[in-house]
């Protein structure tokens, strides 16, 4: 069954239909053939599959997904990124690599506003790349900072990936959001330290920006006007979850409403924009839900055939210690990230394998954060990292792909350092959720 999935994956057919189609095909096959369900007694394959889909459709943990997607698309239309880049780059102009640092800060803000990886990378590239070229900043270094900062949306809440991981592994979405904050800060800090250090020793990589004609007070007010609205929106969403004022579902509604009000204040909201945002949200949410339904059908039928027991026995039979098995799993997920989208990995691979290593006594929240960081690393790694294709699609044709690859490689190494730090000090991911319980 799993081999059929891998084979059909390269056919170019939509993954959601491959998963759902295989699930129902093998469910019907199970009805015809004299096969007994391994997981549930006195229950038919078709009944098992449809019951699981209904269970997923009625899951409250997936409710925030559509609202956070809406919030991200609405903030994209509000023009926040454009104003932030200009204000931050000007305010930080005395620091080496000021424009690159502004990109990292905006990447963090977009990650905490959208939760959509592709949208963050494309928006950052569209806004920042012309400024990099205009001010003669090093293009490969700029492309690397754009790709790495855009991929922070995988990790920093309200990450859509964390919502799906929480649903699949039966973990608290709020705990995952809290757990991802410090690792996200860690990675963005590593990026910033690297950029400051590299540009401080080589001024040709980041020439000084021209002196602004505005006074210090005017610059400060411009910066506050740019950063306060999205900052307050992010704090209201994450703060309401952290202090127990609202659940993630309620906080997502607050975020969607706040983003709409922000676009209205900025005079960026009209009927056409609202229609476009609603359609984009509906398409993205429908795509995600179709994948989740198809994966639910596929995985539950696979379990019915005893596939989960085979995988569990295979992992337990590896000639490694418990820590070695976890490392093997993370390496496998990293490699799969080159050929599979994160949705397939989280919906198919994770539910079948992660419970095994959780049984070894590892903290499930810590494992989930490590998986998110590993996938973020694979999305950055040349030559087939997903972020690189987003960058390529928005870059001028005269920028060669080798500039993208060479610019991203140092950030891949920084990702590995970040993963190693969180691996060595699990408290970075587990301390904050423990304080909220």
What helical percentage do the residues reach?
Answer: over 70%
- Give the topology string: H per helix, E per strand: HHHHHHHHHHHHHHHHHHHH
Q: What is the radius of gyration?
A: 23 Å
Structural class: mainly alpha
Percentage beta strand: under 5%
How many beta-strand elements? 0
Unreliable stretches (pLDDT < 50, length at least 5) are: 37-43
Distance between the first and last residues' Cα: 40 Å
Give the biggest beta sheet: none
Shape: globular
| Count of folded domains | 1
- Quickly count the helices: 20
Task: Explain what the structure shows.
Helix content is 76%, strand content 0%. By secondary structure, it is an all-alpha fold. It is built from 20 helices and no strands. It has one domain (2-436).
